Amino acid sequence: MPPRPEPAPTQNIPGVRHLIAVGSGKGGVGKTTVAVNLAVAMAELGRMVGLLDADVYGPNVPLMMGKREMPQVHEQNRIEPLSQYGVRFMSMGLLNPGDKPTIWRGPMLHSAMQQFLRNVIWGDLDDLILDLPPGTGDIALSLAQSVPLSGAIVVTTPSDVSLEDGRKALNMFQQLKIRVLGVVENMSTFQCPHCHHDIDIFSHGGGEATAEKFGVPFLGALPLLPAVRVGGDSGHPVAVEGEASEPAKPYFDLARRVIEAVDAAATADDILRVRA
Ligand SMILES: Nc1ncnc2c1ncn2[C@@H]1O[C@H](COP(=O)(O)OP(=O)(O)O)[C@@H](O)[C@H]1O
Ligand SMILES: [Mg+2]
Ligand SMILES: [Zn+2]
Predict the structure, then answer these.
(1) What ranges in the chain are assigned the alpha helix state H?
(2) Domain total for the chain?
(3) Label partner for 253 (CA 20 to 30 A): which of 31, 153, 192, 260?
């Protein structure tokens, strides 16, 4: 067998300080919901934020961001991202709107991701958030090998099926030597609006226990809330309402933890670089 080519060294995106991947083992656990609300909350907290929808097969970012226009393409295929709620974003759902599926194999996914990273006019950003597809497949690998990710956030619900796949995602990031910024437990406790009792629809506590087991931070629990689902479906994510709004609050707490984590990681990397 011919020797396997060394992976190409990762290359920065000029102007972008931190690249933050939001991943999970399983679909439907709330990656896009977390990515969108996190992006809006971080922007609200004063960061320059971009959001790249890396889920080519199920691109839900335009729906949740409430904007779907064909992006402008300038000379040399430079693509203008859309801007909404203080966040610049790009998605395959803008280039291939409607219900037509994108049916692609690995190499095409790889080149689409390269175009989204390199040809989109992101400008100066503190943080570019990547909303990954579920699982441990081509796209995550392709991204990890082409750009220097500052870190990854793993989203899981507290159910055992979600946690089982979440552990695979954690193992993938650790094997790829990508810093795990932490685990988020989404669809955590639901509070009955009538009697205000807490109901653990998908169980409770598994996210934190998993973070502990892997020796990574726990970034918090996000409650299961009808307003969050409505916000996503209506293109008006809860974070847009600002920190004072009850449903938005946990996303602002998350945003602060993520900002702290990526800034600390960048400082640590700088110190290592100076020492080397
Ligand atoms: N905390 C939450 N409370 C209520 N609904 C949620 C919550 N998180 C996600 N959802 C809903 O669950 C569905 C799946 O979420 P989504 O973000 O698309 O997951 P993924 O990107 O992991 O596939 C969406 O309809 C979304 O609105
Ligand atoms: Mg998604
Ligand atoms: Zn009740």
Answers:
(1) 31-44, 61-65, 92-95, 106-118, 138-146, 160-175, 206-214, 226-233, 249-275
(2) 1
(3) 192
Residue with CA nearest ligand 1 atom 2: 224
Q: Which of 24, 29, 32, 33 to mutate to test the pocket of ligand 1 (most atoms within 8 A of CB)?
A: 33
Q: Which domain holds residue 221?
A: 16-275
pLDDT-derived band at 265, boundaries 50, 70, 90 = confident
Nearest Cα residue to atom 17 of ligand 1: 30
Provide residues with CB under 6 Å of ligand 1.
24, 27-33, 60, 186-187, 222, 224-225, 228-229, 232
* Predicted confidence (pLDDT) per residue in 58-110, tens digit: 999 999 999 999 999 999 999 999 999 999 999 999 988 888 888 777 788 88
- Distance CA(16)–CA(172), nearest Å, equals 24
The CATH number of whichever domain residue 213 belongs to comes to 3.40.50.300
Instruction: Indicate whether this model's pTM tops 0.90.
Output: yes
In a domain, 260, yes or no: yes
- Which residue's C-alpha comes closest to atom 13 of ligand 1? 28
